[in-house]
């Protein structure tokens, strides 16, 4: 008796229903035979070539990633391209790939709950409802602290990445109500303002939306923290792996167990930063 890919897919779809994904998203099973046995599952944020090789070396039968491999259409799977090489590696090595993306963002617990926990939030609630699903989270710190203290604590809770944290706001500003959105979130500024958050933690913040948001705030809240796309979403992996492992084991008496592994690879694309300035002091000078 063994656990099949179909068994694990049922567990994943129960935890992260595909119908809760945003309309533009591509989630679910990407490769694999539903009848194939699954003994080891490898969890990662990105389905990169290096992650697939890591899974192969571990003897994994299934890779579960947060980000899709095929979000947009492709016209070739030749190994001369990265997508084709990844698909070929999966197929040749009998490794299945499953994606839980925005359906994992909106899940409870999901990606944003893991980020809210890293921020130390209590009284957590959805930041907004989009396409009928709760996106992001907003909650309270147990006590007020400065923006510098909060970001230092968050930095310590996140996996290290070369970009660190980018912060828009005075270091000595007092903050307590915090909104979070794992991954790219600069399309949520209206919801953040409506939530009354003092600070918003997300990633991939672009120059023009941030500049406009800070101008509109007139120097006050909400302050902004770009904590990195990979770092903010990788927090989800350990909890997801534990939930899948437990659900498979709870499949009934004699149900075979599966091993789970968390990728040790940092798939943040940046390698180093040159010339980062320290926080501005009183009066805006550095």
TrEMBL record:
<protein>
    <recommendedName>
        <fullName>GTP cyclohydrolase 1 type 2 homolog</fullName>
    </recommendedName>
</protein>
<feature type="binding site">
    <location>
        <position position="67"/>
    </location>
    <ligand>
        <name>a divalent metal cation</name>
    </ligand>
</feature>
<dbReference type="InterPro" id="IPR036069">
    <property type="entry name" value="DUF34/NIF3_sf"/>
</dbReference>
<feature type="binding site">
    <location>
        <position position="105"/>
    </location>
    <ligand>
        <name>a divalent metal cation</name>
    </ligand>
</feature>
<comment type="subunit">
    <text>Homohexamer.</text>
</comment>
<keyword id="KW-0479">Metal-binding</keyword>
<dbReference type="InterPro" id="IPR002678">
    <property type="entry name" value="DUF34/NIF3"/>
</dbReference>
<dbReference type="Pfam" id="PF01784">
    <property type="entry name" value="DUF34_NIF3"/>
</dbReference>
<feature type="binding site">
    <location>
        <position position="66"/>
    </location>
    <ligand>
        <name>a divalent metal cation</name>
    </ligand>
</feature>
<feature type="binding site">
    <location>
        <position position="233"/>
    </location>
    <ligand>
        <name>a divalent metal cation</name>
    </ligand>
</feature>
<dbReference type="GO" id="GO:0005737">
    <property type="term" value="C:cytoplasm"/>
</dbReference>
<dbReference type="GO" id="GO:0046872">
    <property type="term" value="F:metal ion binding"/>
</dbReference>
<comment type="similarity">
    <text>Belongs to the GTP cyclohydrolase I type 2/NIF3 family.</text>
</comment>
<feature type="binding site">
    <location>
        <position position="229"/>
    </location>
    <ligand>
        <name>a divalent metal cation</name>
    </ligand>
</feature>
């Amino acid at each position: 008796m063994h656990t099949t890919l179909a068994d694990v897919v049922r567990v994943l779809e129960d935890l992260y229903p595909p119908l809760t994904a945003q309309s533009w998203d591509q989630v679910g099973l990407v490769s694999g035979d539903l009848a194939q046995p699954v003994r080891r599952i490898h969890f990662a944020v990105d389905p990169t070539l290096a992650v697939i090789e890591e899974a192969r070396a571990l003897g994994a039968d299934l890779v579960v990633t947060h980000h899709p491999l095929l979000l947009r259409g492709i016209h070739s799977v030749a190994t001369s391209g990265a997508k084709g090489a990844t698909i070929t590696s999966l197929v040749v090595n009998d490794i299945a790939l499953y994606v839980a993306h925005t359906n994992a963002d909106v899940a409870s617990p999901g990606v944003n709950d893991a980020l809210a926990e890293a921020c130390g939030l209590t009284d957590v609630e959805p930041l907004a409802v989009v396409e009928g699903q709760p996106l992001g989270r907003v909650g309270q710190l147990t006590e007020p602290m400065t923006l510098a203290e909060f970001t230092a604590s968050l930095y310590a809770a996140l996996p290290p990445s070369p970009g660190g944290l980018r912060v828009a706001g005075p270091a000595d500003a007092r903050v307590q109500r915090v909104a979070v959105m794992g991954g790219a979130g600069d399309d949520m500024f209206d919801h953040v303002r409506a939530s009354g958050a003092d600070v918003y933690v997300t990633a991939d913040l672009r120059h023009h939306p941030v500049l406009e948001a800070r101008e509109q705030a007139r120097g006050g809240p909400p302050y902004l923290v770009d904590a990195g796309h990979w770092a903010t979403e990788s927090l989800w992996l350990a909890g997801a792996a534990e939930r899948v492992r437990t659900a498979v084991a709870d499949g009934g008496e004699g149900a075979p167990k599966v091993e789970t592994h968390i990728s040790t690879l940092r798939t943040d694309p940046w390698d180093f930063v040159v010339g980062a300035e320290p926080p501005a002091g009183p009066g805006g000078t550095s």
